[in-house]
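Standup notes
- HV: blocked on the assembly model, inputs below
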Amino acid sequence: MSRPPSHDPKRTLTLRDVSEASGVSEMTVSRVLRNRGDVSVGTRERVLEAARSLGYVPNKIAGALASQRVNLVGVVIPSLSNMVFPEVLSGISETLDDTGLQPVVGVTNYSPEREEAVIYEMLSWRPSGMIVAGLEHTEASRAMLAQAGIPIVEIMDIDGAAVDSAVGISHNRAGRQMAEAIIAAGYRRIAFLGTMMPHDHRARKRLQGFEEALARAGLELADREFYSGGSALLKGREMTEAVLKRSPDIDFLYYSNDMIGAGGLLYCLAQGIDVPGRVGLAGFNGVELLDGLPRRLATMDACRLEIGRKAAAIIAGKHDGVIGGEVIELFPTLEPGDTIRKG
Amino acid sequence: MSRPPSHDPKRTLTLRDVSEASGVSEMTVSRVLRNRGDVSVGTRERVLEAARSLGYVPNKIAGALASQRVNLVGVVIPSLSNMVFPEVLSGISETLDDTGLQPVVGVTNYSPEREEAVIYEMLSWRPSGMIVAGLEHTEASRAMLAQAGIPIVEIMDIDGAAVDSAVGISHNRAGRQMAEAIIAAGYRRIAFLGTMMPHDHRARKRLQGFEEALARAGLELADREFYSGGSALLKGREMTEAVLKRSPDIDFLYYSNDMIGAGGLLYCLAQGIDVPGRVGLAGFNGVELLDGLPRRLATMDACRLEIGRKAAAIIAGKHDGVIGGEVIELFPTLEPGDTIRKG
DNA sequence: CGGGCGGCTGTTAGCGGTAACAATAGCGGA
DNA sequence: TCCGCTATTGTTACCGCTAACAGCCGCCCG
């Protein structure tokens, strides 16, 4: 009795199927498909033809197990709806594209426990490297990353201790710089409007740096307002209204991100409030969206694309090199736009 | 000579390390860690303790190869910067969270070749299912998906033939509906403003349905404008200005997405143009952003979250059941907002 | 004319788990 | 006391592929 026809549509194909179809050993097929080692032109073509006509798709699981090599890079970020992270991702994939490495994204929703779970899950696939947003992680997360024996890059933030490498900006300094610019422009009654997220450490550090700079000038926040959930643009509008009604003497509103800042700007314009004369405004991130607004909101570019690129480059570079932590600090530029009084 | 100390920080741990540390067989450790099969309480605790203290992270590659089961679901989408897809993703992960399945995202940038590569790459990891945006794929892509022997769900669109299952809306019908509403409101000189993307089939189908409905009413597009790249909000602004200058008699602007529609709305308001009296506006998608605008743009909800949920549910449900294609059509609701004249 | 070498292909032995089945122990009932 | 059954744990055989090495052949060179 002969073997069942190899065209059985049920069973998924293996190297053996291709090897039988092309009359060479599995090893040779493997070599052809990976383009590794010497194979004669004739054999190569016969194998490729067989693979193509069968519709063979290699099994990377088996391949990875045998070769102890996985072309995956884990990327752990808090959110996809923030616009900031998709842009970091662009930088990452752009750079990884040339290297044969591939990013795999995990989202934590700003939850440390979820982050721990995501990291565990990713490490269990034995990736070639990991890119993780932020420096704050659970004890277990740091331990896992440190033990993994692969390059780890923590991104976005450099105010703290990294497990291995880090690429980012100092949010503390960014907050400070913005405060200094605001004070220099003559504003004195300054309010902060932000998200209510205990785990958004970067926003926290910006606020901290901001308040430090205020203190150094003998000032303190005149008011503050937080929100969570909902449309950021709308929340920016609402919070702005609330703050201005509550504290009519406020002369500057510092937002923790551009989206709510844009909402505030639209509100002020609609109310006929003189910006930046009566009230000044500033956000953070430099999102593309701002370009379409009636007036350019003051902001600070967070170097997102560049952070993604540099992080990916570190992983790609270390591919089989030594593991040595390097910290790359980028410097955001303050874009004063039209919502801060000139000198 | 004794074995080197098992605390060697270089080598990554295996089941054997845990088994030796806890004095039971590898099989028992495997059972404990997967919570499968009967293990005595004492043994279980001993094993868990050993695993924890060693910092053992299972190797899913080996596990998947041995068990022929992979808890991954491939998700292939054209872009992350569109806001639409992150939302679909939310629906997917939300539903998958309960099932032990995990989404893995791949981005194609609206390129069919890139999509083919991404699908190939994903299938080579033998996922439990695939969710792919759109119905248009290369011949090879469709063949691979069909051959894979796993549930395939094509999302967003149902105007066409699916490989297996599909969940989405009819973009053709959506365009038609919007046109009918616009005509019913009395607008006659209608322009279209959209993206220049030959591979955005859904936008194309909307426009097609839109024009069909116009034709049925004896009308045709009075003008059209396309853009590519850049800030959508800004482009919406610029395109609107261009169209209104070129064709001053235009009385309605139909945008292919809400972002450029919002730009157009801001432009009109800034110019003091009477909306919806002199000019009516409509977009597509129902993005959250719109809530924060000074006036509510007419739009059509694309059921993004629901599409994600339903698609994930199909994959999860079929986990080990029969593979049978089902097509789920969702019906977007037209939200007239404040930018279409009332009856 | 023989050894050596390079080009090509095959063989063997896992990679680190898990399915399936075997083995062992402890216990109650006949 | 012996048997059978259940609860628990161990053994064996791969999963599909690749590293490492072995084998074969023809040709060049001394």
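- HV (later): unblocked. The first strand of chain A starts at residue 72 and ends at 77. Residues 15-58 of chain A form a domain with the 434 Repressor (Amino-terminal Domain) fold (CATH 1.10.260.40).
- Next: hand off to the docking folks.
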